[in-house]
Every structure is written in C-alpha cells, then in structure tokens.
Specification:
The protein is of the alpha+beta class. It contains 3 helices and 5 strands. The protein has a 5-stranded antiparallel sheet, covered by helices on one side. About 7% of the residues have low confidence.
Length: 188
C-alpha cells in the first residue's frame, strides 16, 4: 500500500505543478467576452488592445524616410543620420558588433601606432529615432600595458571629455548628412 500511496502523492504533486504552471501562462487580467478592449479587425479578431512595437508606430525607416514614404517599415530602429554618423566617426576602429535595431555599436580594441602602450574601445548607444543632441551616448574604455614585464593590459581612466568629444563629432556628422539629404531632395 505504501507504494500506491507514494504513487498517488507523486501524481497529485505532478498534477498540482502542471496546474500551477498552466495558470502562470495565462493573462494577469481577464477579458470577458462581449467586452471590447480595443479595435477589432482582420488582424485583431479578438479586439485586444494593440501592443506597442519596438520599432515605433511607423515601423522601421531606412535613411530618414518620412512616415509618408512607401518604404516605411523597412529600415533600422534608430535615427539613420545618427547611425551613419556614428559609423563614419569611428570608422578607423575595428567593429565587433553593430545592431541597427537596438542602436548599439561596439568596437574592438584599437591601438594607435603612435602610442603602443595604450588601447581604446568604444561603445556607441543611439537612444532616439529623432536627430537630437541627447540621442547619442558614447562610452570609452582605455587600457594601458603593465610595466611589470608580463605585457598584461590594465584598465585605465579615460579623460572626462573624451566621450563628449566623440558624441559632438557624431552630432556634427549627422547634421552634415541631414543637410546633404535635404539639399539633394530640393534639387530634384
């Protein structure tokens, strides 16, 4: 009997765990039938509220296309001028990663031939879909070679204005790209 009792307890525990797991998958608030919660249509037959897209209400836009363009929904998730200007500004450094949907550019370590005892790494964050001064953030990392003969790289402080100077260079280049795009559109 103890084997049967143990099997029943195990089955009950398994059933409880399954019920608990299934209830965790459900919505936190219930919507009763007949209570519309949003617009219904062919793409939303249940009438649930539309969720906000990670790409914004206009979808993806490539190279600054306006919301009236036929190409809306086919580009990157950040401001294209800031994206291109960031790539142009740090073009001398090798890229490790460039995520146009998340707006993150990460370089590999760069060692200037004029200063062989130090190297730099840059991460650029594009924070907005609009061309704004606070739409870009730069983090700079610096390492110097240890003097103890091991050749190890040791983290070192970066001058406080270095990230700001790179941000300003990116913003200047982004403005240049935007002006050239406007001038090209006007000359058509």
């Amino acid at each position: 009997m103890t084997g049967t009792k143990g099997a029943r307890r195990a089955a009950a525990a398994l059933a409880f765990a399954a019920i608990l797991g299934l209830t965790a998958c459900g919505p936190s608030t219930s919507n009763y039938p007949g209570q519309p919660t949003g617009k219904s249509g062919p793409n939303n037959p249940t009438g649930e509220l539309e969720r906000e897209s990670i790409f914004g209400e206009d979808g993806l836009t490539l190279f600054g296309g306006g919301s009236g363009d036929a190409e809306a929904g086919t580009g990157i998730g950040v401001n294209s001028f800031l994206w291109r200007a960031s790539l142009d500004t740090i073009a001398f450094m090798p890229l490790t990663s460039a995520d146009p949907f998340g707006g993150v550019i990460i370089t590999d370590w760069y060692q200037d031939p004029k200063t062989p005892g130090e190297r730099f790494k840059v991460t650029v964050y594009i924070l907005d879909r609009r061309l704004r001064a606070d739409g870009v953030k730069v983090a700079v990392f610096r390492q110097t070679r240890a003097d103890n003969g091991t050749g190890e790289w040791i983290d070192a402080a970066v001058a406080g204005n270095t990230p700001l100077q790179i941000e300003n260079a990116i913003l200047v280049r982004a403005r240049q790209l935007r002006i050239s795009t406007i001038e090209a559109a006007e000359s058509r």
